[in-house]
Fold this sequence. Notes:
Elements: H1 2-11, H2 14-28, H3 33-63, H4 70-84
Amino acid sequence: MQNIAHFTIALVGPTELWIILAIVIVLFGASKIPQLMRGVGKGISEFKQGINEGKELENKINEGNEPENKQEDQKKELTEKGKQE
Length: 85
């Protein structure tokens, strides 16, 4: 099965990539391509952010500390600051 995947990837060369690029330009227009790439970039960054948040949550759970709601944390900080003043 892996041999088939390597074989098909090897079939995509620079000429095929230029053809695919030309088709994308015809379908979406040159003005829409930056918007599409911007959307892809935002999607990738949100995906990475979600992965990092998941890892942080997993670390907190593994440490035995249940993660608290961020709003509750902020309320606690404000009340502590008010008591100190």
